[in-house]
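Morning!

As promised:
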Amino acid sequence: MSTTATPPAPPKKVNRIGLEIATYKGSKSTLCAGCGHNAISERIIEAFYEMGVEPHRVAKLSGIGCSSKSPAYFLGTSHGFNAVHGRMPSIATGTMLANRTLFAIGVSGDGDTASIGIGQFVHLMRRNLPVIYIIEDNGVYGLTKGQFSATADIGSKLKTGVINDLPPIDTCALAIQLGATYVARSFSGDKRQLLALLEGAVAHRGTSMLDVISPCVTFNDHEGSTKSYSYVKDHDEPLADISFVPFFQDIAVDYEPGTATEITLHDGSRMILKKLGEDYDPTKKVEALRVLTEAHDKGEVVTGLFFVDTKRESFLDQLNVVDEPLATLPESRVRPPKQVLDEVMAELQ
Amino acid sequence: MATTHIAARESEAPVEPQRVVNDLSIQVATVNGSGSQTANTVLLRAIFQMGIPVSGKNLFPSNIAGLPTWFTIRASKQGYIARRKEIDFLVAMNPETADEDVRDLRPGSAVVYDERLNLNRLRHDLTFYPVPFDKLVAPVCPDAKLRKLVRNMIYDGVLAKLLGIEMEEVHKALQKQFRKKAKAAELNWNAAQAGYEFAEKNLPKADPFHLTRMDATRGKIIIDGNAAAALGALFAGVTVVTWYPITPSSSLCETLIDLMKRYRIDPETKKATFAIVQAEDELAAIGMVLGAGWAGARAMTSTSGPGISLMSEFVGLGYYAEIPAVIFDIQRVGPSTGLPTRTAQGDVLSTAFLSHGDTKHPMLFPCSVEECYSMAIEAFDLAEGLQTPVFVMSDLDLGMNNWMADPFPYPGKPMARGKVLSKEDLERLGHFERYRDADGDGVGYRTLPGTDHPAAGYFTRGSGHDERAHYTERPTDYVSNMDRLAHKFETARHRVPSPVIREAAGHEVGIIAYGTSHWAIVESLDQLQQEHDIDASYCRVRAFPFSDEVKDFIRRHRRVYVVDQNRDAQMCQLLRLDVEPEEVKKLRSVLHYNGLPLDARSVTDAIVTQEEVK
Ligand SMILES: Cc1ncc(C[n+]2csc(CCOP(=O)(O)OP(=O)(O)O)c2C)c(N)n1
Ligand code: SF4
Ligand SMILES: [Mg+2]
């Protein structure tokens, strides 16, 4: 007698919309092993899975660079658009104008954003378009083999020994000044903080700008670099300890009065920022800019949620665009009737 | 012809030379920013309302105020509306240019001028009509600050009297111009009347030019090409419009904004069924169009040469990733900033192959305001049908000048949105390959982001891709994809508007022209026949890639003159690439590139000269 009892398969873990995490994965990464960008892709997969975002509603957008390749490595069933160098913001804008029901996530690099694409970046931040904008920031141009980018710190050294003698562009300070409404800096190696910040970005409506320091193991992970794993680990100064409570979980988070700031985001999710050092109010632009400026002076890498504004209207609301996707409005709603043409013609006679 | 300084000679009644009726051109020379536009538009409209075919061309500087500007109006009983080189009636208001303007006139022309300019000292073979503008404007416009603005209306009154323009029509045109501004209309009307009365009392008619009522403009409209294109876009159902200001294109999007606000606000929700964004530059403008086109919207931008240059990289992406886009190029004179307020057809070659690598793009060439309208509609159907950027190649002359036209027809067919698979299609098919030539026309099927099916998503990239849109560097994949794109371009050849051909009996001489050159060609064909006994056929090219009819036309004729408004014979070069080698030697060029709209005489002269060598 033989019993070929197959043990019952353990129930597969699914998220709130019944999807497994595998659904949120993409194709196999072709980036270098250990590249910070891969860790960011993993956090994106987790954040979208945890938040239960429907993959078909997501549009993944990017420019050109190692970083910009990464949308192929997450959310494999979503539509993706790998555009030209530095121009992801305009593609993202057009996409969201065409279909405001989409969920846009754009991935860029520090070269893609802070040099060739700085113009489009600046204007995207101004518009407060609903989009998550991630800079995978390694201080170099990975794809073209290691030249300095404009986020490289002054005094930082290339493998070849070349020293950077120009001050860095702080994309977070810029974004805050320009009008982005959710601005944070994180580190690809800090799983917990990055995940919370990404989940918060998913819950926010408006431009979420995340500058994520993401070491390039091949060209910028050596002694003398300020974007190496060890340098960032040693100099990381988190502003607060961040917890994220999604809108669909009714969890009470305990903290002593006065020791944490709680922010309610658009979909009802909450960010709880537990104080680590001094008082910090992420709704004040001036405060954010002060902290960033002081960190530069001290050679520290401050991370965390610098600024949130949940009140500002998004670009699409400002344009007063109809709720449905413009892309698929029927002819009856986009081609005016013949009387309209007759009326215009009569005026021109 | 004798000088007739009328005001000074009252005793001798001047002898009127032979009457020239409904065939003249008027040139008004003013200073930019002096408010002459109203006076000129009213003049044009009044003649139009008298049933006389008329056209107006504004020659203006790239400046807001202070530089010379000329407005020419041509009235022609034969219906010729191209620019005419010769001026019959000059209105000289600009001290800077007056002397030169007068010296350029042909003997027998007439000059209405500001008395203070003393122009009658310059020539003895013209008719001079001095007018004391300042003296006349003071009583009709007590507010000194407004005088500058209404002063020009005085010449409308003077010309009305001298040429026989009906004052009632001047009044009607003024009412139309100032629709809701009754006070401004009245001030201007008083000024026009003052001019009329002055001329009546002091300027006896001494030139041969007359305008009298005809019936050739009934039911017609007057509109500029940019407004016509904007109307086309409105009725094409455009939903996403992005732009960056540049002369001579800005008025297209500005007019479209007005139209959309009027006619495309949802009556129930009061929300917009469109989004219009003034982008930070042309790179962003085309990027937004491609993003929107990719996501399924009918999206467009409008620009001119410098903007086209900036769009180059993105247009290559649009071509290779196969994304619909409509781009209006209102061409102006290049290279570089060139003559930004003058007209040309200088972007033909660079646009045909815009971007690096093997790229080529469909282009449409409207010649009239009707075609600005109809081709705008057609461009969207083509772009979505072919999944590629499509260019509408207008120019400054067409875009910014007023043209007569028959009222535009309502679109005769529904919007053709191209091959887009829905969720239901995918449920039926189970899968799809984005870049597979399933139908043999080179055009694949696409899905839009947001389609609720696990097989819908695909990855769009400007890097090498296979049929399933996966990254590839395999030589065979690259070649087969590029060959399919070439095949798709052949499909475009059969879909774009075919040429309009007017065949002559002899098949000796053919003319190929496109865009605004058309109006000079129709007149030149008559000149060639009447003055030189040359009976030429005419093929008006309306699109690139060229339909087979264009090649057949060349094959049928012995000598073919290709008329280009650029230095390098750009259309002729494009044709050379397309026709059989033995046909190439038939192609000759007529080139015009001085920034002014093409005139018939230049074409006729160029052809006659070249015809001497058979
Ligand atoms: C117009 C243009 N210029 C230059 C390049 C070459 N290029 C490709 S990626 C890149 C820099 C990428 O750096 P970054 O955005 O920091 O991405 P990383 O590779 O570091 O992730 C450059 C200069 C290009 N693709 N296009
Ligand atoms: S070169 Fe640098 S940035 Fe590019 S994949 Fe390798 S580690 Fe990452
Ligand atoms: Mg980089």
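Chain A has twelve helices and 13 strands.

Hope this helps with the figure draft.
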